[in-house]
């Protein structure tokens, strides 16, 4: 594939290596690991196959282990992926002391036949979500926790305006500029795609990724038959294969996959711009100049420290940035209980200026499966200025004002 890419994109790939955006980084994602010594036993096969089938229908990479040495070595080797671990009760007793401290393990789900024997582990280990005896509740909890991590993730780059020379840019400031350039290149090469081959190329990639997943393969075929450029927001809001793979590529800055999705990304950006223009017309009628928007999330102590020390600096979200008109929805996300000790709730307060050609956003509630969330979506790689950061004792969370 590399030889067919435009020279500008190849140059970006080479440049990414100098900024620490490596192939290893590009593989970062979410993985579900099921670790159970009885998985291969004949008498358990029917239940095991049902559980495996349910796990494979999830839109995440799933691995199965029966041997402790192989599983533990794999968990030790992970430096980038976020791991959601399903483990049998007896294995939990034997191995949680060793593996609970592994940084890449986010959540642990104990799956067993005798929950009363293992409930004490929930109190002993902070990453243990619960003890489960049947597939439905396990899968529901797994999906809830994975989706929560994805929604609360804030992948951003900071740029200190005092650093004027590229030569003296820090790695983060360099990544900030790199991503801005990448989005422009994607738009340019999409315009140059006269034969519009990009959509079929994207769908072929998606079919390979989701082979064996009948739910998403059906969605892909529906997309192939019915998709039009004006449906881009609708498909993004469905949170199916398009939403997941586009955000995975943006989150991991995977240049090859971003190139594969170039046409759809450009359609989505174009529709956001069109909806923004319509919003501006409506706001002019009511003489509204600024819309207050919110985003609730969890941030690490280090990220909060960076933000506090970047007042007046710029921040760019490496993706399409979702916000809400409803502060209660945002606060709910920010204050959602987390077992992780290294994160805190953060409420982003954003002043969206109407009529600005620098900040493009669209009210997408009409397209969403969840209109009650009052979602407003910002264009790719929107840049904000950090105005104020403080801890709100009343709400018991950090508030950060962006404009």
From TrEMBL:
Keyword terms, alphabetized: Glycosyltransferase, NAD, NADP, Nucleotidyltransferase, Transferase
Q: Which PROSITE patterns would you find in this protein's record?
A: TR_MART (PS51996)
Q: Does the keyword DNA repair apply?
A: no
GO molecular function ontology, one term from the record? NAD+-protein-arginine ADP-ribosyltransferase activity
Q: What class of enzyme is it?
A: transferase
Record carries keyword Nucleotidyltransferase: yes
Which Gene3D superfamilies does the record cross-reference, listed alphabetically?
Answer: Toxin ADP-ribosyltransferase, Chain A, domain 1
What is stated as this protein's family in its record?
A: Belongs to the Arg-specific ADP-ribosyltransferase family.
What is the protein name given in its UniProt record? NAD(P)(+)--arginine ADP-ribosyltransferase
* UniProt source species: Rotaria sordida
């Amino acid at each position: 594939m590399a030889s067919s890419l435009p020279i500008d994109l190849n140059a970006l790939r080479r440049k990414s290596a100098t900024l620490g955006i490596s192939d290893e980084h590009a593989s970062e994602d979410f993985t579900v690991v099921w670790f159970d010594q009885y998985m291969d036993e004949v008498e358990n096969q029917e239940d095991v196959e049902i559980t495996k089938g349910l796990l494979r229908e999830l839109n995440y990479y799933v691995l199965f282990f029966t041997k402790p040495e192989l599983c533990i070595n794999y968990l030790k080797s992970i430096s980038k992926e976020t791991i959601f671990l399903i483990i049998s009760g007896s294995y939990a007793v034997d191995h949680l002391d060793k593996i609970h401290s592994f940084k890449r393990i986010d959540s642990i789900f104990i799956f067993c036949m005798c929950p009363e024997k293992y409930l004490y582990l929930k109190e002993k280990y902070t990453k243990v979500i619960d003890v489960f005896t049947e597939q439905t509740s396990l899968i529901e909890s797994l999906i809830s926790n994975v989706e929560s991590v994805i929604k609360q993730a804030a992948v951003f780059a900071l740029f200190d305006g005092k650093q004027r020379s590229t030569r003296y840019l820090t790695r983060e400031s360099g990544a900030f500029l790199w991503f801005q350039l990448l989005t422009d290149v994607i738009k340019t090469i999409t315009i140059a795609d006269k034969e519009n081959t990009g959509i079929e190329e994207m769908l072929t990639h998606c079919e390979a990724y989701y082979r064996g997943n009948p739910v998403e393969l059906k969605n892909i075929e529906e997309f192939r038959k019915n998709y039009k450029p004006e449906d881009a927001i609708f498909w993004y809001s469905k949170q199916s294969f398009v939403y997941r793979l586009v955000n995975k590529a943006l989150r991991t800055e995977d240049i090859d996959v971003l190139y594969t999705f170039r046409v759809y990304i450009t359609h989505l950006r174009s529709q956001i711009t069109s909806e923004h223009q319509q919003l501006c017309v409506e706001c002019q009628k009511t003489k509204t100049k600024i819309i207050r928007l919110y985003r609730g999330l969890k941030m690490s102590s280090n990220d909060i420290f960076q933000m506090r020390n970047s007042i007046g600096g710029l921040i760019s979200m490496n993706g399409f940035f979702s916000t809400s008109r409803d502060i209660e929805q945002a606060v709910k996300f920010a204050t959602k209980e987390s077992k992780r000790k290294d994160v805190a709730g953060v409420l982003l307060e954003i002043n969206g200026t109407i009529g600005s050609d620098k900040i493009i956003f669209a009210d997408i509630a009409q397209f969403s499966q969840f209109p009650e969330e009052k979602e407003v979506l910002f264009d790719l790689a929107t840049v904000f200025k950090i105005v104020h950061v403080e801890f709100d004792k009343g709400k018991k969370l950090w508030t950060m004002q962006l404009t």
